[in-house]
Design goal:
The protein is α+β, with helices and mostly antiparallel strands. It contains one helix and eleven strands.
Length: 128
């Protein structure tokens, strides 16, 4: 095998590994059904938020009793966001998103997180 072929094969393998590291197929929040309970308000701290992996959503509470929901899939590489405090943070490549709007605060992501509407019923957070 020539050096050029070897380097080309290694580059292709690295690209596949990079996609796999970001979780392969990005989560599809639109698969979550309306009316589904996605989490509990007790899990979402004021001024921060929580990632609900089973529903592929991140729910934030920027201010007391103001709940916002966004896709948990980073718009840069499809990784699931991992941390939520004063920003929604994707640790795969360092993108950060605003907890009130889902807008990009720090790249490399260029697009905001997709927003969803939720209703609160007692402690249940329900996708509208």
């Amino acid at each position: 095998m020539s050096r050029r072929s070897l380097l080309g094969t290694a580059g292709a393998a690295a690209a596949v590994t990079a996609v796999s590291a970001c979780g392969g197929e990005p989560p599809r929040p639109q698969d979550v059904r309306r009316g589904q309970v996605v989490g509990q308000t007790t899990d979402v701290p004021e001024g921060a938020g929580a990632v609900f992996h089973h529903s592929k959503l991140v729910v934030t509470q920027p201010e007391k009793d103001d709940y916002r929901a966004f896709s948990a899939s980073c718009t840069h590489g499809g990784c699931t966001v991992q941390e939520v405090d004063d920003v929604i943070r994707c640790l795969c490549h360092g993108s950060e998103f605003d907890i009130s709007t889902g807008e990009v605060v720090t790249g490399p992501a260029q697009e905001p997180l997709e927003g969803f509407t939720v209703t609160i019923d007692g402690e249940d957070i329900i996708l509208d």
